[in-house]
C-alpha cells in the first residue's frame, strides 16, 4: 500500500472514531441532562411546595367570617384581642385572633414582615401561625387550634386532671420552645409574655408556646403593665421591664422561672384580681412569710414581731433568701460569725446574699428583738 493511501485510511478512521466519541458523548450528556433535570425539577417543586406551605397565608375578612361562623365561638380574650374557634373547608380547625386597633395602611408592610417571620418559625413546642388577615376593618392572626386550651385552666382551677409527670413534661416542652426562640432562630425572638395563659395544650396535652413575636407586632393595651413602655404581665414580667436595666431574652427566663414555681405549686404566685388595698396586705404577708421560713432559726423573727409585720405597724425589711441550702453556690460567703452568734437582724444587722446591711431605724424604734436560739 502506498504511503499516501495508508495515511488517508488512517485519517478517515481517526475522523470516524472522533465522530463516534463526540456522538456518544453528546448522547450521554443528553441522557444525563434529562435524568438530572427530572431530578432537579422534582426537588425544586417539592422544595417550593414546602416553602409555600411554610409561608403564612393571607386570608380575607370574608374568609375568616365564614371559617368562624361569624365569630360565633369565643375561646377567650387577652391583651391583644379576642380569640375565636374556626374551621376551614378542608376540616382544619383553627384559632382566629382578632387584634385590637385599626389597620393603618402605613403599618401593613411592617405587619407583614413580622407575620412573615413568625409564620416561618416551626418547632414542636411552638404554636404554628397559619396566616393572617390585614384589611381596613380587620387585623387577625390564624393559628393552629389547640384543643385543650391554655395551661392556666388546668393549673389553677379545680379540674386537676394533669398529673405531676405530665406537668413536668409541659415544663420541659415549654423550656424547649423558648430555647428554640432564643438560641436557634436565625433572628432571636424574645417572647416578653411567658405565662400559663400562653402555654397551649393539644389533645394529648402536648405543650406549645403561643403568641411569640406578638409583642413586636402589636402595642399592648392597658390590661398589661405600661410603666415606661414596659411589657409583660404582672407576676411574670422581669423587673428590667420597668426598671432602667437592659432588656434581653433573659426576661423570658425570669418569666419561665415564675411559671415553674406555679407549675410545682399549682397555684398563682400573684393574684392580680386582688384590689389595690388587699395587694398591699398580700405583699406584707408574703414578706412576713419569707422572714418566718428562714432556714436559720436565729434569722426568724419573734411572733410578736410577726404580728406587727402582719398588722402593718412596722416597716418590713427586705427578706433574706430563705433557702440558702438550695443555692449553696450562689449565696456567697457565710455571714459574719458575730451575726450568727448573738445578734438579731431586727436589732442590728441583716444579710442579703453576701452583703451585710444595718437594720433600719424603724426596727430600733420598735425595739424589736430577734429570737435567739
Ligand atoms: N391557638 C389556640 N387554640 C386554642 N385556644 C386558644 C388559642 N389561642 C388562644 N386560645 C384561647 O384563647 C384564650 C385567650 O388567648 P389570648 O392569647 O388572647 O389571651 P392570653 O393568652 O390570656 O393573654 P395575652 O394577650 O397576654 O396572650 C387563651 O387563654 C386560650 O384559652
Ligand atoms: Mg395568649
From TrEMBL:
Entry-linked Gene3D superfamilies: Phosphorylase Kinase, domain 1 (3.30.200.20), Transferase(Phosphotransferase) domain 1 (1.10.510.10)
Keyword annotations from UniProtKB, A to Z: ATP-binding, Glycoprotein, Kinase, Membrane, Nucleotide-binding, Serine/threonine-protein kinase, Signal, Transferase, Transmembrane, Transmembrane helix
InterPro entries noted in UniProt: Kinase-like_dom_sf, LRK10/LRL21-25-like, Prot_kinase_dom, Protein_kinase_ATP_BS, Ser-Thr/Tyr_kinase_cat_dom, Ser/Thr_kinase_AS
Catalytic reaction list: L-seryl-[protein] + ATP = O-phospho-L-seryl-[protein] + ADP + H(+); L-threonyl-[protein] + ATP = O-phospho-L-threonyl-[protein] + ADP + H(+)
Molecular function GO terms recorded: ATP binding; protein serine/threonine kinase activity
Name of the protein in its database record: non-specific serine/threonine protein kinase
Keyword Glycoprotein found: yes
Organism: Turnera subulata
Recorded superkingdom: Eukaryota
SMART domains documented for this protein: S_TKc
Membrane topology annotation: Single-pass type I membrane protein
Location within or outside the cell: Membrane
Domain Protein kinase: 69-324
SUPFAM superfamilies recorded: Protein kinase-like (PK-like)
Organism classification: Eukaryota, Viridiplantae, Streptophyta, Embryophyta, Tracheophyta
Residues given in the record as ATP binding sites: 97
